[in-house]
Fold this sequence. Notes:
Elements: H1 2-21, H2 33-40, H3 44-56, E1 60-62, E2 68-70, H4 75-99, H5 103-118, H6 124-142, H7 145-162, H8 170-185, H9 189-212
Antiparallel strand pairs: 1-2
Helix pairs in contact: 1-3, 2-3, 4-6, 4-7, 4-8, 4-9, 5-6, 5-8, 6-7, 8-9
Amino acid sequence: MADAVQTLGDSTFERMKAMILDGTLEPGARLSEKKFADHLGVSRTPVREAIGQLISEGLAVRGAGGTPVVNSVSLGDIMEILHVRSLLECEAARKAAISGQSDEEIKVLRVEVAAILEGPPPSAAEHTALDMKLHFAIARMAGSKLLIELIEGLKTKTRMYDQGSIPDRLIPGCHEHLAIIDAITAKAPEQAAAAMKEHLANVRAAIIAHIYHPF
């Protein structure tokens, strides 16, 4: 029975997390146990557990009076996050190029990225999923569990900020991803790190441009 409750709690967490990341729940939105229990068709216990997990991951915070609300990420926050991501992910790309672990996985991902350039544009959700898969695959190739956890947490916070709202990044981002992959498969660590650094610098510039020129 405990396993079933835990599974339901995890499922509730994933559903609420998805609503935050896709913008359904905006920053500052109240996370009422009763409201979400009714909406998701579960009891208040898994909702309470899910809210606790959201707070532990930084996706929610306790507001005035202790009411949980969706967290907001400021421009300063996102700039700091991207700076730390650059430090971590450049090192991950460098180590991935040296290790050569899971080489086949990243080759498959290259085919998927290249297909975007040749076919109809994917949905925002499909593109986000592929982007996450690629960055996490590189982190795994680096061979550090801690690195994977840190990158995953920071990348989630980046998604909270842009929520796929910068469509102009699709094609340039694909070319940048291909450059990273090619450097890794060529076993060129410094080139891989440089390609990752350029990619994240361009993400940073696009976010800043989107803030000041949103249309």
